[in-house]
Amino acid sequence: MIRTRGLTRHFTVKRQTVEAVKGLDLSVAEGELVALLGPNGAGKSTTLRMLTTLLRPTSGTAEVAGHDVIRDPRGVRNRIGYIGQGNGAGHSQRARDELISQGRAYGMSVRAARSRAAELVASLDLEAVADRVVSTLSGGQRRRLDIAMGLIHAPELLFLDEPSTGLDPQNRANLAEHIRRLRAERGTTMVLTTHYLEEADQLAERVVVIDHGRIIADDTPARLKSAHAGDRIVLEFDHDDEARRAQARGLGIAEGAVAVREGNRLELRLDGGARLAPKLLRSFDEAHLPVASVEVARPTLDDVFLNLTGRSLREEGTGTADAEESAA
């Protein structure tokens, strides 16, 4: 469904050339749900804008749903759905009318567009505001309307750029369920960017980590966490000296273990920590090192990115993609 080779985008900010995306090679098979992760400015949104024909690449090639994004942008647009970060509905139109008009623009009959609009209005909790003018809706309501507009024609390939931003937990859950249903019933291919790491972990079967415009990791969430972030075992002792002695003993429990001590608190990071925790506690007991408390934490995708780049996925800030969108 997606194949890029050397996909690159440069733009000029204050007379300086900024490389937003640098030689991106990406393949997405039919039916996959791929999450693009990275902090603001990593190049995620710029990549999506090129793949959806909203932004012309500086160099490289991209085929989306069997069509070249430069030579046949109309062919690409006919086969995809796109939920961007901004509000897409006309402010002077009624929400339901916007959905029906969007469906008609994709060639749906009036009856089919109305039926699909009603389904999405119910699914995304828009029933109370569906006949109100868009300008009177709250930010969260407008976001849910944007999502409905992107889903109206049930596209075979759907791009979602931070779709959950501004949604409360209940509506995030509703969106996740709708995504799962689309995939189960229609086999829709999806590319998702998100700052909700749990969302990517639960929904995506494959995670692509982007930093400074390049892909730095690409695998399943489980494999990424196993390869780049071990379990954390956090232990507290009654005395600093006990934690110091335990640090040396803990490092011998598994090859590649890392130990960090602060006073009477000891944190061990190692592969298979949940499985090794009982053995570790028995070892401390034999050495007469009583543990006051213990906690085992499984790795997260944020741990993966932190270990790969030294930064957190949850960082907020202005980066290249944001600057490019402002210039546009």
Concise overview:
Its main location: membrane. The chain is α/β, with parallel strands linked by helices. The protein is 39% helix and 27% strand.
How would you sum up this structure, described in words?
The protein is α/β, with parallel strands linked by helices and 328 residues long. 39% of the residues lie in helices and 27% in strands. The strands form three sheets. A six-stranded mixed β-sheet has the order 6-7-8-3-9-10, sandwiched between helices. A four-stranded antiparallel β-sheet has the order 2-1-4-5, with helices on one face. A four-stranded antiparallel β-sheet has the order 12-13-11-14, with helices on one face. Helix 3 (95-105) crosses helix 4 (110-123) and helix 8 packs across helix 11 (301-309). The longest helix is centred in the middle third of the chain and has 18 residues, at 169-186. The radius of gyration is 24 Å and the shape is elongated. Residues 316-328 have low confidence and may be disordered. It is a peripheral membrane protein. GO terms for molecular function: ATP binding; ATP hydrolysis activity. It comes from Prauserella cavernicola.
